[in-house]
Amino acid sequence: MSIMSHNGGSVIAMVGKDCVAIASDLRLGNEAMGISSNFQRIFPVSDRIYLGLPGLATDVATLREKFRFRVNMYTIKEEREIKPETFAHLVSSTLYEHRFGPYFIEPVMAGISKTPTGGVKPFIAATDLIGCLNFAKDFVVAGTASDKLYGVAEGLWEPDLEPEDLFETISQTLLNAVDRDAFSGWGALVHVITKDKVITRTLKGRMD
Amino acid sequence: MARRYDSRTTIFSPEGRLYQIEYAMEAISHAGTVLGVLATDGVVLAAEKKVTGKLLDLSSAKDGGYGGSGEKLYLLNSNVIGGVAGLTADANSLVNFARSAAQRHLLTYNEDIPVELLAQRLCDMKQGYTQFGGLRPFGVSLLYAGYDPHYQFQLYHSDPSGNYSGWKATCIGANNGTAQSLLKQEYKDDIGVKEAIGLVLRTMSKTMDSTTLGSEKLEFAVLTVDPETNKPKAKIYRPAEIDALLLSEGLTKKEDDAEMKS
Amino acid sequence: MENSFALVGKGYLIVAADTTAARSIVKMKSDQDKIKALSPHLLMTYSGEPGDTLQFAEFVERNIRLYQIRNLYPLRPSAAASWIRRSLAESLRSRHPYSVNLLLGGYDIASDDPHLYWIDYLGTLSEVPFAAHGYGAYFALSLLDRYHDPNATLEEGLATLKRCIDEVSKRLVVSPDKYKVKVVDKDGIRDVEL
């Protein structure tokens, strides 16, 4: 049994038209035994950036606290919110600090940034457990169902989806992928981040 | 002769006094006024800005940040607003320390720091500078307006000696005596935030040196609890919002005492 | 084998832990209390590596008491849980990690409701309506999935707990015979006989 699948859980992020979405399942397990069906692994970093932390649950909590601390100190000293691109590098360097004794987490982040011309730019990224960044233009996946998520997302995702269509796409992708994975599932949580609001919805899933 | 006991902070005078600390407090009583009032459903802070001038670049204060113009009122944590009176440079260092302390508490306990605990953290440091040799005490008094689930809304004051105390309404800086006796007359135990705002603004207008009351001379903040999320909401007013508030309270620019009495 | 169970109900929290102290295949003691009262409204069961368990539980107990003395009010259950979790997470990556599993539960005076946290030796923390540690968990969690009711009265809650204990006694090869049961609600902590 690998440490990465000790607690189970998966996260996916997708790009839409002037919006992004990030979603995860809600299972916390201890190997095959389910402990909680309400385990949060996606956290707001700012109003417009969300961070998903699939992997070992103790490190989910540790990293969540660490990033909240670092982002709060950044915000308070800089007197402005952190940009998604900057935050991605914060995640990367934080993980690489522990190159030879890593946190067992493969973070996924989604956010939108404002361009100088007043438009918005969607942003998604993922890293491996030592912080190697992957900036994708379509979708990123991680967690115990990542191989299944790749397959379904490859089939369902298309460019320039409006927020509601993106919500449907990411929800279907996640639910169908985690149904094929014993370590993920037990309900899901979806955030769609748009220019002026964040839509958060809880999804029911198979409870077996 | 007093000089012999002046030069170091850590030496008592024959009468048992620490002159440097008394001087620090004296310095504060010449600084811009900061005034706080505790209400049943919130806390109100106001401060008098001293450094003004046409050539002072305040462009960064207009947008970004947490509101305010960053001279007297600071957001210390999402549940605490601090008002400072005294040396600006010392105050900046204390504000920085307070923000780090609050974040450290959040990191270990996953909760906003209780207001009194934050005041204690700063006072521990301030007291240290009155005892260990060669250093000057912080020339800063602070007001802490905050909320926590233990004691709900709170207002604290701390001085350079490291003492702190809780208040229903208090004032630090220039003319604090006048302001405090005014507050003593007008404060009621069941005061709401709306009335507290009025009380704070009226008291400020009476104690401030200048005849005009406007955003160029005033900083203003209110801490309440958001009824929807049940979380504390700290609002430091931007210059335009202060002018709008003064207008709605009927206290614009030229202040006249006739209105006060009615 | 060690077992501990806990569940929240309407305004209360029940915590139970077996009372055996075993070394290898030998039962050394059968009246060991493995539930610590950390503050007037906070309970913690501990199980795992003998030695580590008591050492860590006392470390937690003293630190929570210290906070209470310094700050005139005790830590809230959620804050205590976060602090304990961090201690275990830091211990995990140290030279000698504690091997202790905990169920932490308490009644929050500030928000007027009970909370239960499942914590393991890795520093995993999760707030749950019911929880269990040990081999008994495999039976108890299924029963609790079926019978747990967050709005149940204390009597109903205790009956659900008894179901779990009876099932574990019936099905587990090496099952403990005696359990210590404690309840915490707005009035504080008390022992309960099943």
TrEMBL record, chain A:
Any one GO BP annotation for this protein: proteasome-mediated ubiquitin-dependent protein catabolic process
Alphabetized UniProt keyword annotations: Cytoplasm, Nucleus, Proteasome
Record field: transmembrane: none
A Pfam short name: Proteasome
Keyword Methyltransferase: no
Subcellular localization: Cytoplasm; Nucleus
PROSITE patterns referenced in this protein's UniProt entry, alphabetically: PROTEASOME_BETA_1 (PS00854), PROTEASOME_BETA_2 (PS51476)
InterPro entries, sorted: Ntn_hydrolases_N, Proteasome_beta_3, Proteasome_bsu_CS, Proteasome_sua/b, Proteasome_suB-type
GO cellular component: cytoplasm; nucleus; proteasome core complex, beta-subunit complex
Family: Belongs to the peptidase T1B family.
Subunit: Component of the proteasome complex.
Function: Component of the proteasome, a multicatalytic proteinase complex which is characterized by its ability to cleave peptides with Arg, Phe, Tyr, Leu, and Glu adjacent to the leaving group at neutral or slightly basic pH. The proteasome has an ATP-dependent proteolytic activity.
Protein name according to UniProt: Proteasome subunit beta
TrEMBL record, chain B:
Subcellular location: Cytoplasm; Nucleus
Keyword Nucleus on entry: yes
SUPFAM superfamilies: N-terminal nucleophile aminohydrolases (Ntn hydrolases) (SSF56235)
Keywords assigned by UniProt, alphabetized: Cytoplasm, Nucleus, Proteasome
Gene Ontology biological process: ubiquitin-dependent protein catabolic process
InterPro entries for this protein: Ntn_hydrolases_N, Proteasome_alpha, Proteasome_alpha-type, Proteasome_asu_N, Proteasome_sua/b
Broad class of where this protein is predominantly found: cytoplasm
A GO cellular-component term linked to this record: proteasome core complex, alpha-subunit complex
Highest taxon above the source species: Eukaryota
Pfam families cross-referenced by the UniProt entry: Proteasome, Proteasome_A_N
Proteasome alpha-type subunits domain ranges (all copies): 5-27
NCBIfam families per record: PRK03996.1
Function as written in the Swiss-Prot or TrEMBL entry: The proteasome is a multicatalytic proteinase complex which is characterized by its ability to cleave peptides with Arg, Phe, Tyr, Leu, and Glu adjacent to the leaving group at neutral or slightly basic pH. The proteasome has an ATP-dependent proteolytic activity.
Subunit structure, as described in the record: The 26S proteasome consists of a 20S proteasome core and two 19S regulatory subunits.
Family (UniProt): Belongs to the peptidase T1A family.
Protein's UniProt name: Proteasome subunit alpha type
Automatic annotation (TrEMBL), chain C:
Location(s), subcellular: Cytoplasm; Nucleus
GO CC term (a single one): nucleus
Cytoplasm among keywords: yes
Keywords, alphabetical: Cytoplasm, Nucleus, Proteasome
Segments forming a coiled coil: none
One BP annotation, GO: proteasomal protein catabolic process
Metal-binding among keywords: no
Assembly and interaction partners: Component of the proteasome complex.
Family the entry assigns: Belongs to the peptidase T1B family.
Function of the protein: Component of the proteasome, a multicatalytic proteinase complex which is characterized by its ability to cleave peptides with Arg, Phe, Tyr, Leu, and Glu adjacent to the leaving group at neutral or slightly basic pH. The proteasome has an ATP-dependent proteolytic activity.
UniProt xrefs under PANTHER family: METALLOPROTEASE TLDD (PTHR32194), PROTEASOME SUBUNIT BETA TYPE-1 (PTHR32194:SF2)
Record protein name field: Proteasome subunit beta
Gene source species: Crepidotus variabilis
